[in-house]
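Lay summary. Proteins are chains of building blocks that fold into shapes, and those shapes determine what they do. In this project we predict the shape from the chain. Here is one chain we studied, written as its sequence of building blocks.
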Amino acid sequence: MRDFNRLKNRITIYTKDNSGYMPGGDEYTEYYSCYANIDNVWLKDLEIAKTNNTLNDVTVTIREPGSTVNIDNTMYFTVDNDDSKKFNIKSFQPDFTDNRFATLIGEAVTT
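And here is the predicted shape, written in a compact code that computers can read:
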């Protein structure tokens, strides 16, 4: 992924708001929004994903947000054209081969 033209899906990342008034009633606020490239599990990796229980994972490539944005695994994101589906962020890391991009690993929230 070395092409900004592939960043076609807009995602919104939410962070937990600590000002909730009810115990256990976590509230989330919009933290960061950007364009992304979203990849599902590849067909060649399907059997490995089944055994590792990562079938609902997606790999999201975004433009490197810079040092002012700190994304961690307590957050979740939605794809803006399908707000009904949430993805918990499992990991966030810079792309070491191209420092213009960063990678999120998200797991679909099943209810």
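What the prediction tells us: The helical segments are 46-52.
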